[in-house]
UniProtKB/TrEMBL annotation:
GO terms for molecular function: acyltransferase activity, transferring groups other than amino-acyl groups. The chain crosses the membrane at residues 45-66, 86-108, 129-152, 158-176, 188-209, 215-234, 241-263, 283-303, 324-343, 355-380, 401-421. Keywords: Membrane, Transmembrane, Transmembrane helix. Residues 43-366 form the Acyltransferase domain. Residues 1-32 are annotated as: Disordered. This is Acyltransferase 3 domain-containing protein. InterPro entries: Acyl_transf_3_dom.
Amino acid sequence: MREHSSPIPVPSRPSVRRARSASTQRPSPAELDAITGNRDRVVDLIRLTSLIVVIAGHSLMLTVSVHDGRVTLGNTLSDVPILQPMTWLLQILPLFFFAGAAASTYGWRPDSSPGQWLLCRAQRLFRPVAWYLATVLTAYAVCTSIGASAVADVVAHLGVQLLWFLGAYVLVLAAVPALQRLSSRRAVLVATAVAWTVTAGVDVTRLAVGASGLGYVNFLSVWIIPAMLGVAYAKRLFTRFEAAVLGLVALIIDILLVSLGPYEMSLVTVPGQHLSNMSPPSLLLAGHTVVLCAFAIVLRTPLARVVAHTRVWWWVVLGNRGAMTLYLWHLPVLGAIIGVAHLCGFTRDPQSALFWPTVLVTTMLLLAAMVPVTGVLSVLENRRLPWWDEPVARATTTCRDVAVLVLLAVVAVSTLLVARGGIVEEWGWLASGICAAAGARAVAAVSRSTTLDRSHHVH
């Protein structure tokens, strides 16, 4: 089994520090290539690529119209429906779950307590979120105090909308210790089929009786599928041929679901959809996760060749060290770029003659701007917080461990609900999530002698 850890540690040996540039304080590509050993670099490449494509997709989809002083946000896929099939190529966020589970499998140790293990991951995941959420709450308070209610409403909702991903990801990570029992191709296929069937049952019920709240079950039943396939990837349970067959079968089923079933083409939410494929996730998205992960397994060798290049690996390492920062802050940066462009006469109104040139240029500017933004703000992501980041013991009593696990599950569910309704409407869940996180940290066992190896943190 290949070594894997995340985030990727930057060397601290005196000889390496002296070799670094005084301006960057980062290892050179050659140094980084030497110290990362036989790490599975494909996992880190997949994780970073999935985030970059998602960020670009958010920019390409967003339309902004200003009429009579009112700002209206829209979706390119709604205005130009012919582009919706493109989401089958651009909706690759499931690969982040795939990569996260693979990295967790490489770093899992059987003597770890699941709750303690999950808290160790949550420490790093929520560290940048704490800074981001503090900024959102401050921005909301300032906008409210100066009477900018329209801006305050956007901040209250759009500012936390993307946190749904974190809630779903923590729920899936909570299941990773149990997923380590998957030790054969058959076991993975059976488990995947069970999750797919549960998702189908939920969708049928939603359509039959309109039980929309039941859709939240799919946040676990769908997103656990790429995690299971990530475990299979790390354990090498599928050959390339077997993975290719699995991917093709899943793709055919997805095509049939759209052609003959109730599902719409777009794999991201579009206004007016009678059944969203994304929020909550649907059976179509469940199949799509299988397609993506299966072909990721197929492409393992060529991807390994790509990331074997020293300069490529250097960028992958730096990107992964700020992965959560990259994800959290791209919408505020996009908003700033769109605002400046609007002042310069370049709007994202779909009726504008310069709409597509504006969208493409601002998307490229966003990707370029996120390099320095992530470089600056990722310092907060990698700086440990007092108390919250105290070392977590590898094992503890069953009662204490279950308590930690339950509290972190509450944090995950609270995050999903806050992302859905905003910080004002769902302030109770926001408070509950913060209290549950603090409770998990307080209940968890702390030990200076037998601690979880922090080199195995997972974004």
